[in-house]
Design brief:
The chain is an alpha/beta fold and 133 residues long. It is built from 7 helices and 5 strands. A 5-stranded mixed β-sheet has the order 1-2-3-4-5. The two termini are 30 Å apart.
């Protein structure tokens, strides 16, 4: 396992070029606001360098990454809004309950799989909650 630390968008192209030079086959993109803001660029660079990408959020798959597996971001956004509402109404944040996601979403981008010439197993496609075509 090789780690590539990218701290700014301008460093993305160099990181993907280094991955390609080191014969990396796939990339796991960790949760990060900078990565989320540059999802399309990351997907573009991954395709250009023939790298499969696994991300933390289905929005990354929608932007062109190969796949993601994560908690349901829409559900989390709603829960976050509920917590913010309660705090703004005077609730003590320290006393709000800890919650866990009620489910997870597997999202797969078939266009990206085709571009990378990856034949995804039928069973994996059947398990997917979302398939981007």
């Amino acid at each position: 396992m090789i780690f590539f630390r990218v701290k700014e968008p301008d460093a993305l192209a160099q990181a993907f070029a280094e991955m390609r030079a080191q014969n990396v086959d796939g990339v796991f993109i960790l949760p990060d606001l900078m990565f989320a803001a540059n999802a399309s660029r990351i997907a573009e660079l991954a395709l250009k360098n023939n790298l499969a990408t696994m991300a933390w959020d289905r929005r990354m798959t929608e932007a062109g990454c190969l796949m993601s597996y994560s908690s349901n971001s829409d559900e989390l956004d709603q829960r976050l809004a509920s917590f913010v509402d309660r705090i703004l109404k005077g609730a003590d944040a320290g006393y709000l309950p800890v919650e866990k996601p009620s489910g997870f979403v597997l999202s797969i981008n078939l266009r990206t799989a085709a571009a990378l010439k990856i034949a995804l197993p039928r069973d994996l496609l059947m398990m997917a909650n979302e398939v981007v075509e």
